[in-house]
């Protein structure tokens, strides 16, 4: 979602605003909750995401779950465009030896 917000702000007219709805209380999904936080690439991504969220035309709405708190139909009625970027809440098993080590 934040990658999409970044691109939209960069390419949309100056009057466009972007609302980012996040199901978790804090943004960044797996960058925050699933990747080693001391990894340099992770820090770079977090810095970029912070810059996106700090943009005057971007607003973060946390604790908003699609399908529970708001429906896709409601979003389509209220916004000119909707991007659904849900990520994944769970790890995916690869089925390889040693994956549970």
UniProtKB/TrEMBL annotation:
Show the InterPro entries listed in the entry.
Ferredox_Rdtase
Instruction: Name the keywords, alphabetized.
Output: FAD, Flavoprotein, NADP, Oxidoreductase
Q: In Gene Ontology terms, what is one molecular function of this protein?
A: oxidoreductase activity
**Where does the sequence pass through the membrane?**
none
As cofactor, the record names:
FAD
Asked if the record carries the keyword Flavoprotein, the reply is yes
Q: Where in this chain does the entry annotate a coiled-coil region? A: none
Q: What is this protein called?
A: Uncharacterized protein
Q: What is the source species? A: Pycnococcus provasolii
Its lineage reads: Eukaryota, Viridiplantae, Chlorophyta, Pseudoscourfieldiophyceae, Pseudoscourfieldiales
């Amino acid at each position: 979602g934040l990658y999409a917000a970044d691109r939209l702000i960069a390419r949309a007219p100056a009057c466009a605003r972007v609302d980012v709805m996040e199901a978790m209380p804090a943004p960044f999904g797996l960058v925050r909750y699933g990747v080693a936080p001391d990894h340099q690439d992770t820090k770079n991504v977090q810095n970029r995401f912070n810059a996106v969220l700090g943009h005057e035309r971007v607003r973060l709405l946390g604790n908003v779950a699609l399908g529970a708190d708001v429906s896709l139909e409601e979003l389509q009625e209220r916004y000119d465009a909707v991007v659904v970027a849900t990520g994944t809440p769970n790890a995916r098993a690869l089925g390889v030896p040693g994956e549970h080590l």
